[in-house]
Amino acid sequence: MRFVLLAALISGPNAFAWNSHQDILDRILLEPEAGLRSYLSIRIPVPCQEEERKELVSLGARIFFTASKVPLLSKKPCGSGKPETLSVAELIGAGVVDEPDLGMDQDLPDEADPRGDRKWMGGKTGPTSQGFRHMVFPGIEWGSPIRTLQIPFSAVGAAFERIETLREVSNAYLKGGNFFFGIRTLLWREHLIQDLLQPFHSTQVPEIRMLPWKDLFSGFVARSSHAIANYHYAYEGLALAMVKSPDERGVQECFKGAAARAYAGASEHLKLGRSKAAPVGSALFSIFGDYLKSKSVNLPEGVGQIDYYELLNARSESLEAEELKLTDASERSAIARNEQVLEGVKTLRSETCSLMHELTSVFWGDLDQALQGMSSSSKTGK
C-alpha cells in the first residue's frame, strides 16, 4: 500500500475546529475573572452597514478572505439616525469569534495559498478548503513514525502565518482607535489560536486503531477518511457538551482561576494540542471502539448521532448500550463496554479541561494586553 494514498485523510471533512468557539467564550465571560476587567463595559461605536461592508471588502482584498461570507453586525443603514454602540462584552458575545468558520477562508484564489497547502488540506473549493488556515501538521517525527503518521511527511498548514497577520491587523486598528474592527479581528485571531489546541488540528491520526485496517486492500483511503472524520466529529460533540454541561460533572471548573498569560507563540499551542492527541485518541477509541468506522455512521451528515450528554453523565458501573442513545441497534452492543467507556470519558474530561484552561488563560492575556489601555474616550470613538 502506497502511503501517499493516506493524503486523503487530510482531504476529508477535517476542519471542524472546536464545535462552537462562541460557547467557549460565553463560558469564559460567566466566570468571576470577567468582572475584574472594566474595559468589558466600555461602549464602542458600530459603523453603519455600508461602512462596515466597505471596510470588510477592503480588508478582504488586503489579507485574502471572502468578505461576502462575513455577516454584518450593524443593524442600521448609513444616515438612518443615531449611530449604534456595543459594549466590548457585547461584541465578544456577538458570534464574531465563529466568523472564520462561516466561509471567509473558503474558495480562495491561489495567491492566498502560495505554498499549495490546500493540496494536502482539503482542496481548493468547498467547506474543507478553509482547513489550511485552521490547522498545522508539523511533520512526521521519525522517532515516533506511527504516532505522528502524516502525509506529506513535511510540515503543512498556514495557521501560524495567519495568526501573525491578524495580530498585525488588529494592532493597527486598535492603535488607530478603530475598536470595532480591532476587537473583531482580534477575535478572529483567537479562533485560530484555539484551533491549534484541538488535537485533531495538529495530528492527522491521533490513534492508529481508528484506521480501518481490515479494508487495507479494499477502499482503505475512503474508509480511513470517513473513520477519522467520525472520531474527529465525536470529539467535537463531547467537548461542546462538556462546555455547555449544566451540572457539576461538566468542565466549568476548567474556566475558573485561569490567570491571564502572555501569548507564548503559535508553536507552543500546537505542541500542547499535539501532546493531547494520543490520550484523546486512545480515550475516544475506548469509548466508541470500531463503531465510528462503520459505513452506517456519518456524524458530519447527522447519521448515527450520539447522546453526548448521556455519555458524559454516565455514573453506573454497568453502562448499557441503550443509554448511549445510538440510532443503529446493530452497533450499540459493540460499544457498551462498561468500565472501559467510563474510563475513556474520564480521560477525555481531564484532557479537555487542561486545554480549556490554557485557551482561557491566553484569551485573557491577549485581551488584557490589547484593551486595558482603552479609556473613556473610546465611548465616542475618539
Describe the structure.
This protein is mainly alpha-helical and 382 residues long. It has one domain (3-380). It is 43% helix and 2% strand. It has helices spanning 8-11, 21-30, 49-63, 88-92, 131-134, 159-175, 179-196, 220-244, 266-275, 277-288, 308-312, 329-335, 339-371, and strands spanning 43-45, 85-87. A two-stranded antiparallel ribbon has the order 1-2. The protein is globular, with a radius of gyration of 22 Å. The N and C termini lie far apart (64 Å).
Q: What's the overall average pLDDT, rounded?
A: 84
Terminal CA distance: 64 Å
Helix-and-strand structural type: mainly alpha
Number of domain units: 1
Strand ordering within the main sheet: 1-2
Cα-atom radius of gyration: 22 Å
* Helicity, as a percent range: 40-55%
Largest sheet: 2 strands, antiparallel
Shape: globular
Number of helices: 13
Question: Using DSSP, what is the number of strands?
Answer: 2
Topology pattern, helix = H, strand = E: HHEHEHHHHHHHHHH
* Poorly predicted ranges: 1-14, 377-382
Hey, roughly how much beta strand do the residues contain?
Answer: under 5%
Give a brief outline of the structure.
With 382 residues, the chain is an all-alpha fold.
List the helices and strands and how they pair.
Elements: H1 8-11, H2 21-30, E1 43-45, H3 49-63, E2 85-87, H4 88-92, H5 131-134, H6 159-175, H7 179-196, H8 220-244, H9 266-275, H10 277-288, H11 308-312, H12 329-335, H13 339-371
Antiparallel strand pairs: 1-2
Helix pairs in contact: 6-7, 7-13, 10-13
Keywords:
mainly alpha, 2 strands, globular, disordered N terminus, disordered C terminus
